[in-house]
Structures are given as C-alpha cells and as structure tokens.
Specification:
This protein has about 375 residues and is mainly α. It has one domain. Helix content is about 70%, strand content about 0%. It contains 20 helices and no strands. α5 packs antiparallel against α10 and α8 crosses α18. The longest helix has about 35 residues. It is globular and about 80 Å long. The termini are far apart. It comes from Enterocloster clostridioformis. One of its GO terms (cellular component) is plasma membrane. Keywords: Cell membrane, Ion transport, Lyase, Membrane, Sodium, Sodium transport, Translocase, Transmembrane, Transmembrane helix, Transport.
Length: about 375
C-alpha cells in the first residue's frame, strides 16, 4: 500500500500548480480554440512531466535510474542538441505563406520592420529588471509573435526560461484579437482608423515569386549568418510553394509535416515546464514582459505608419490607414484579419485586408530576421 501511495504523497504544491496550469492551457485550446494545436499538447505535457517519478522524464526511482524518458529524450535530441524541431517547422510555415501582397507593394516591408520595436524595448526593460543578457534577449523575442522563433532563440542563447517563454509566446499569439485592438486604439484616433485605402495590386509573375525566397536567403545570410537556419528554412518552404513543380510536397509541408512537427514540438517543450523551473516569480515577470513586447510591437508599427503619413501629406498624397502598421507582427493571418475587422467596424465597407496581409507576411520575415540578429548581437557578448 505504501508503494501505491508513494506517488500521491510525493506531489509538491508546485507540481499541483502545474496541473492547474496544464488544465488551463487545455481549456483554452478546447473551449476558446486558442492555438489548439500547440496549447493542448503543451498543457497535457505540463501534467505529464510534473507527475512524481514520471516515466516521461529521467528520474531516480528507488535508487535506480530508469531508461531515458521519452519527453526528455525528445527535448534533448530535437531541441537542445540541434534545435531541429522549431527549425523544421519553418518549412511548413514558409509553404503556407503567399508573399504576393507584399511583392506587389514592397514598401509594406517597412511596416513589418517597424513592428519589431517591441522586441528591443522588452530586451531593454528585461535587463533593467535584473535578467542577464541571454535571458533578456530570449524574453524580448516573445515580441516576435512567433512561437518557433522564441523557442529557437532561447535555446540557442541557453536561456533557463524556455518553458515560460514558449507559454507566453503561444498564449499571446492566441490573444492577438484581444491585445491588438487595445494597443491600436491607444495610439490612433477614430478618424485615423476610418481612413480608406485603394488596393491596386501589381501583377507578380512566377519568376519574381521564385526569385524572392532565393534572394532573401542570400542577402540575409550574408548580413546575418546566424539567421540562415531560420530564414533559409522559411524561404525553402516558400520555394516549395512557388516553384510550381512540387505541388504534393508543398501540400505535405503545409499539412501533414507541419502538423506532426507542431504536435511533437508542443509536447516536447513541456519538458521545460517542470515545477522546479516554472513556478517562480520570474515566470510572472516573463509573462508581463511578453505582453509589453506585444503591445510595443503593435504600437511601434502603427506610430511608424503615422509618421509615414506626415510625409505623404507633405507630398500631397493619400495617407495610409495606420492600423496596417500593427499587422507587422508574425501572427499571420490572424493579425491582418483583426485589423480588417476593426476597419469594418469603424467604417462599414472599408476594406484594407490586402494591405494588412502584405504587412503581416512582411512581419513574418522581419521577425525571423530579428531573431537571427538578436542571436548574432548577443553572441558577441557571451
């Protein structure tokens, strides 16, 4: 009987907290449909790794060390040793993205770049709050609004907070429909949100669509070699989509391949959500800083669009709706849909979806480049 009760009596209050965290993540995935493909395995994994003497983690049981636990093995092999899982996921992400709206209006890339402001603002604030540089940089990348990028950067830099960072990144990605309208309204007037924009797309030929991922990989790779794994796999996925001769591989990358990697990534990251690492004041601080990064990203993109409008007014040209600047985060296509919904609410019939989508895909590329730049810069000081 004592052997049967050993697991129950070994439960700590921190592990009990993690059971609640896991159940909340599962509830958000199932009930609210917030990033279910990741939050559900992440939540269930959080329960698995916090069961005393869990078979999914290497632990000492009655003086003996069991065979490697499956989740710990997956973490050490697929993330810690090679960062393979988050990098491979970028192939699927790249295959899903249509860069047509961006290529037809290349100026939108500036809005995507401006919307990365929150990353660097959060890094600065995290440093001021006492986090060391590697942890502060990893926390700041939550502002990329890209879970795989956040996981990869925190792992490459050796942050001890990969679990809280992953949870914050994916949670706030799911909360984009709540966070972004709030941030946009903070820095815009109703008149600005009602600005109409005409969409006159230029035709984007197949040659340009194929050349774009190749050119981006070469240029970014030469400027920031640490970005090659991120940008290269993203652009390889997009090349599968655009080449026109690998339709079945493109569909596989978008669906089966991306789903399998997402599933494994979610439950594997839960290894870093063990109670002794997760339940501490730093986790709460990371969640707050992640929110700050998201708000600053959105506000930075919107304010940059408003600055552009000053020059457009001086030139006698029509202004842009500054809300599209808030789409420069990596949460594609959710962010562009949120902004279009806001525009339609402010002025029925106002359609800015395509400009928002162009900014949104530029944010996907910009956030990946920003992640590589952060790795390159921080690595110089470590």
């Amino acid at each position: 009987m004592s052997f049967l009760l050993e697991g129950i009596t070994a439960v700590t209050w921190q592990q009990a907290v993690m059971y609640v965290v896991g159940i909340i993540l599962i509830w958000l995935a199932v009930k609210k449909e917030y990033e279910p493909s990741l939050l559900l395995p992440l939540g269930f994994g959080a329960i698995l790794v916090n069961l005393p003497y869990s078979g999914v983690v290497d632990q000492m049981v009655q003086g003996k060390i069991p065979a490697a636990g499956i989740i710990e093995w997956l973490f050490k092999t697929g993330i810690e040793a090679s960062e393979a899982m988050p990098i491979l996921l970028f192939i699927g992400i790249g295959a899903m993205i249509d860069f047509g709206p961006l290529l037809s209006q290349p100026v939108l890339f500036l809005f995507g770049a401006a919307a990365q402001f929150g990353i660097f603002a959060a890094i600065l604030i995290a440093c001021l709050m006492g986090f060391d540089l590697r942890d502060a940089a990893s926390i700041g990348i939550i502002g990329a609004a890209d879970g795989p990028t956040s996981i990869l950067v925190s792992q490459v830099l050796g942050s001890g907070y990969i679990g809280p960072i992953a949870v914050a990144a994916y949670s706030y990605m799911a909360l984009v429909p709540i966070i972004q309208p709030f941030a946009i309204r903070l820095v815009t007037t109703r008149k600005e949100r009602r600005i109409h924009m005409e969409y006159n797309p230029k035709s984007v030929n197949k040659q340009l669509r194929i050349a774009f991922p190749i050119a981006v990989t070469i240029i970014v790779g030469l400027i920031s070699p640490q970005s090659v794994a991120l940008v290269g796999f993203l652009m390889f996925g997009n090349l599968l989509r655009e080449c026109g001769v690998l339709g079945s591989l493109s569909q596989t990358a978008q669906n089966e391949f991306a789903n399998i990697i997402t599933l494994l990534l979610g439950i594997t990251i839960s290894f870093s959500m063990r109670a002794e690492q997760f339940v501490n004041p730093a986790t709460l601080m990371i969640m707050v800083l992640g929110l700050v990064a998201f708000v600053f990203d959105t506000a930075g993109g919107v304010l940059f669009a408003k600055l552009i409008n000053v020059f457009l007014k001086m030139a006698g040209k029509k202004p842009v709706n500054p809300m599209i600047g808030g789409c420069g985060i990596s949460a594609f296509p959710m962010s562009s849909r949120v902004v279009q919904k806001m525009a339609a609410r402010e002025e029925p019939g106002n359609i800015i979806l395509m400009q928002a989508a162009g900014t949104n895909v530029s944010g996907q590329v910009a956030s990946v480049i920003a992640g590589g730049l952060v790795i390159s810069i921080v690595s110089q000081y470590l």
